Amino acid sequence: MGARCSAQREFLAEAGTMGGVLGAHDWSTSPLGPPESWSPTLKTIVGVILRAEAQIVLFWGSDFVALYNDAYAPTIGDKHPRALGRPARENWAELWDDLEPLLKGVRETGRTFVARNRPFYIERHGYGETVYFDVSYSAVPDPDGSTAGVLCIVSETTERVRAEAALRESEAKLRELNETLEQRILERTRELQQTHDALRQAQKMEAVGQLTGGIAHDFNNLLQGIAGSLDLIRRHPDDPERVRRWSDAGLKAAERGARLAGQLLAFSRTQELQIRPLNISKTVTGFAEMLHRSIGATIRLQMDLQTDNEYVLGDQIQLEMAVLNLALNARDAMPDGGNITISTRLRQLTGDRELPDGGYVELSIADNGNGMPEEIAERAFEPFFTTKPLGKGTGLGLSQVYAAVRQSGGAVRIESAIGSGTVVRLLLRSTEPVPDAADPRARQEQPNGVTATIMVVDDDPDVRNFLSESLATLGYQGIMTEDGASALAALDDIDPDLMIVDFAMPGINGAELARKARVRRPDLPIIFASGYSETVAVKAAMGAHSRLLQKPFNVHDLQSSIHELLVLSNRGQDAPR
Predict the structure, then answer these.
(1) Which CATH superfamily is domain 273-431 in?
(2) pTM of the model
(3) Phi-psi group of 40: left, alpha or beta (phi > 0 → left; psi -120 to 50 → alpha; rest → beta)
(4) Structural domain boundaries of the chain?
(5) How many angstroms separate the Cα of 351 from the Cα of each of 357, 363, 406, 431?
(6) Per residue in 500-534, pLDDT tens?
């Protein structure tokens, strides 16, 4: 009997692990009975299933008794081996409402059911989860033509489906991020820009604050020179030679005051860079007075300029700011006093790590102070990095130096050591002067050759008086008005050849007045006279036939601007010779 039973189970031989499991299994309680009693069809198909590498489960008979191979066993987790030889509803109870219709549909119709990534809810590891399979359920026919069972070839795709879902979620988040990223970047760039602008302005005002100690004294000296000269002229009006000498002295004092005011206003404003050729030696020497006032009496300032008539590319205000910042840093490094040397010399660079080959001017600021260790010097130009106590510096000074020089096509180098002082070298790109780079005041007076009617609009009576006298001296007919409303009313009756407009006035300002005036006189030349440092608004209001005349100006500046605009606009008539 044992030999016959063994022979009956030959289809289980060499059929992998599950072949041995089926051979040793207790089939007394299974609806199928022992393997040797199985129909030839069942034995044949089970033999094929056990030797296949695909994941296969066979649901046999009307009870859908489960038989499966090695590849399939892991997919049901702890249901194996108790599910072997038992009706499917016993061990797939949690998904039987889903699985039974599929199996019945194949059994009753004979049609194959195929699906990709079919979800099933299953409890196979002590907890419920949704898993996914590629499935193909096919009918297994009996010799009599009926359906004996359902052959299920499956492939679990759970990990792939979850990975794809995670990828889709990531892609959706990425799309959402991309859709909002630009806006978020713009918004953050605006908190950062505002912060940077505020700190940059604070740094500028810090520099202006360094100057205020001597400003009152210097302005009083300048006013003394102006007032004293005028007083002497009033006392001795009949002495032409001395009047000329006193007037020259008063004018020079006024010009010094104008330069000083202009430098202070330039430091306090936010402006765009104006890269142009600069006479490096004149720029440095013209700034020397302000440097002296800034660094104090305990510091000796020396100049060693070897670049007469040499020009560099740069923004004058930014370059002056750079020199001032470096001088103030040098001063702070010498609390007990010392020397600062500002020097310039020509450099020819080849193979530099930062700069293209060519000609440069080296502007260096050297001190004999305490110096810095290497690790501090390496970070000196980082924004917001400072070794000064809280409240004593913004940490923006040297970063502004670096940015200004780099924007002009140059580079900054620093050399320092403890006990040996510090040298900061600004390498500035050499260039040629523009044709009109010379001081316009050095040119000889040019005859007007034209006469014209000029309307003046200024709310300051002293300025109006000066312009009235100046225009009469130059041979022009002047019409004085004190505000924009008066000027617009006058335009109803007068057609001036040119207007001189104060930009900052109560009521109708210069920009609005120019716009309204040009509605009536589209080609009317306009000179904007402005005493403010903020010229961006003025430039926005200027048209093709406009010029900006920065207050304070002299008669020559006034004459040149008027003559240029009248010639440009073909207005005015030949003046009497």
Answers:
(1) Histidine kinase-like ATPase, C-terminal domain (3.30.565.10)
(2) 0.43
(3) alpha
(4) 2-156, 171-270, 273-431, 444-574
(5) 6, 20, 18, 19
(6) 999 888 889 888 999 899 888 888 999 998 876 55
